[in-house]
């Protein structure tokens, strides 16, 4: 009886932040844009990482576990497009976990702090990516060789994230805020 | 008074000069004529416009249509003009390698951390791992991963790319290694007299036959004391930042 009862048990987790599947759809679309369009707009060899923005913003609002659930397929897509052997999957997932944990200690609202977080996430993600590639057999020192590009990428990513958050803040009304303050 | 004026006028006429009175009247009448003609012409123009309004409407519609057609034609011609360099590039590559497989670049490394592009030809089209890839200008890279419908090309500028190379004018051998933006010639003989602008071509290897242009020497790095070889920076002949069409060289060609 009890085991039968247990089998029907559903975990109930009270979650906040954006719904998973729409976020997943947008992230997939951004990953496609990232491979088809964004590299054509490279500035000093660097491109903003739209996927990192999506993962960081989602993880900062939805938490580490759900952030990692989004980062995992997003990173896998990037690995497929780039032809790399799991570097982006692992680094994206770890970044989502870190951001999710860090977001407990900060306000994810506003534009400046999340944008800076996106920029930092790019640097951490790149460092982890090249470390993983080193483990996979790439020559040592690639992280240092790509440091200049990574810094530009971090800056571009932070700028794009900031721009998006400012525009979003003007166009979209946060339903959670309305409920919280009891507005009708 | 009238007689006085008449005498004055007669006197000026006899002298062959224009009298002040005549000049004044003429000036005033000129302004009046100008004003009158402006009014008359305006009225005539307005009347003509009213009369021709139905025709003007149809003319306007016809001209708008012609304008739209010309704009569309202009856009199309601009697009064709923009494609000319890529088409020329591909045509040149096909001319040099008639048995090569034409391919279109359909994807780039999403994070631009590695110099890898995806092309729309795969195993079904006869593409195999380590096949060379060229543009009309020169070497682009080599195939590193083959799927049934697509393949991944490691560009010659990627830091993990290594190709056997030869400096054409002295036949000095070297290894061409990517530096992310350019190509570095390594292990060039200490005796080689490199010059800026020298052509660098492929040596016989797994991906390319000998003689395919990689690029030209842009900079010769100073030789350190005791070094047994020298290095030089090569500017790739192909524009790898804007690849759109390439030709894949089968290893058996």
Q: Could you characterize the architecture of this molecule?
A:
The complex is a heterodimer of chains A (184) and B (253). By secondary structure, chain A is mostly helical. Chain A has one domain: Orthogonal Bundle (Arp2/3 complex 21 kDa subunit ARPC3), CATH 1.10.1760.20. The model of chain A has no long low-confidence stretch (mean pLDDT 83). Helices cover 71% and strands 0% of the residues of chain A. With 253 residues, chain B is of the alpha+beta class. Chain B folds into two domains: 96 residues, no CATH class; 148 residues, Rod shape-determining protein MreC, domain 2 (Thrombin, subunit H, Beta Barrel). Chain B contains two helices and twelve strands, in the order ααββββββββββββ. Chain B has a six-stranded antiparallel β-barrel. A six-stranded antiparallel β-barrel of chain B has the order 6-7-8-11-10-9.
Class of secondary structure makeup of chain A = mainly alpha
The N- to C-terminal Cα distance of chain B equals: 115 Å
Radius of gyration of chain A: 18 Å
The CATH C-level name of chain A is Mainly Alpha
Q: Bin the helical content of chain B.
A: 25-40%
Give the CATH architecture of chain A: Orthogonal Bundle
User: Strand arrangement, largest sheet of chain B?
Assistant: 1-2-5-4-3-12
CATH architecture of the largest domain in chain B: Beta Barrel
Task: Provide the fold topology.
The complex is a heterodimer of chains A (184) and B (253).
Chain A: H1 2-7, H2 20-36, H3 50-62, H4 64-82, H5 87-102, H6 112-135, H7 142-145, H8 147-171, H9 175-181
Helix pairs in contact in A: 2-3, 2-4, 3-4, 3-5, 3-6, 4-5, 5-6, 6-8
Chain B: H1 2-15, H2 20-96, E1 101-108, E2 116-119, E3 132-134, E4 139-146, E5 151-155, E6 162-167, E7 172-178, E8 183-189, E9 199-202, E10 213-220, E11 229-236, E12 245-249
Antiparallel strand pairs in B: 1-2, 1-12, 2-5, 3-4, 3-12, 4-5, 6-7, 6-9, 7-8, 8-11, 9-10, 10-11
């Amino acid at each position: 009886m009890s085991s039968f009862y247990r089998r029907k048990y559903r975990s109930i987790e009270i979650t906040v932040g954006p719904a998973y599947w729409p976020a997943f759809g947008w992230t997939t679309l951004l990953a496609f844009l990232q491979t088809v369009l964004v590299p054509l707009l490279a500035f000093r060899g660097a491109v903003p990482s739209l996927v990192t923005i999506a993962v960081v913003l989602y993880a900062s609002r939805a938490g580490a576990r759900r952030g990692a659930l989004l980062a995992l397929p997003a990173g896998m897509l990037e690995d497929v497009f780039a032809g790399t052997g799991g570097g982006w999957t692992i680094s994206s997932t770890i970044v989502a976990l870190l951001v999710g944990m860090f977001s407990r200690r900060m306000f994810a609202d506003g534009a400046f702090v999340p944008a800076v977080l996106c920029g930092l996430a790019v640097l951490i993600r790149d460092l982890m990516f090249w470390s993983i590639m080193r483990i996979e057999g790439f020559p040592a020192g690639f992280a240092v060789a790509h440091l200049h590009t990574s810094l530009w990428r971090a800056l571009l990513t932070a700028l794009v994230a900031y721009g998006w958050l400012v525009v979003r803040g003007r166009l979209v009304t946060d339903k959670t805020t309305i409920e919280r303050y009891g507005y009708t | 008074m009238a007689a006085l004026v008449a005498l004055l006028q007669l006197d000026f006429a006899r002298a062959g000069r224009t009298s002040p009175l005549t000049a004044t009247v003429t000036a005033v009448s000129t302004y009046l004529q100008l004003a009158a003609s402006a009014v008359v012409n305006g009225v005539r123009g307005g009347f003509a416009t009213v009369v021709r309004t139905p025709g003007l409407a149809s003319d306007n519609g016809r001209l708008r249509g012609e304008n739209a057609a010309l704009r569309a034609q202009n856009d199309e011609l601009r697009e064709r003009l923009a494609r000319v360099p890529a088409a020329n590039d591909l045509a040149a590559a096909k001319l040099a390698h008639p048995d090569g497989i034409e391919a279109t670049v359909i994807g780039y490394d999403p994070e631009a951390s590695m110099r890898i592009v995806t092309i729309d030809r795969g195993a079904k089209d006869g593409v195999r791992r380590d096949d060379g890839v060229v543009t009309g200008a020169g070497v682009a890279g080599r195939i590193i991963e083959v799927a049934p419908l697509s393949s991944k090309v490691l560009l010659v500028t990627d830091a993990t790319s290594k190709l056997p190379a030869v400096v054409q004018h002295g036949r000095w051998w070297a290894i061409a290694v990517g530096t992310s933006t350019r190509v570095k010639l390594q292990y060039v003989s200490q005796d080689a007299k490199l010059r800026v602008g020298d052509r660098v071509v492929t040596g016989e290897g797994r991906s390319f036959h000998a003689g395919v242009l990689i690029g030209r020497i842009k900079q010769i790095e100073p030789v350190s004391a005791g070094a047994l070889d020298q290095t030089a920076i090569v500017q790739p002949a192909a524009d790898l930042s804007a690849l759109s069409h390439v030709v894949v060289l089968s290893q058996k060609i």
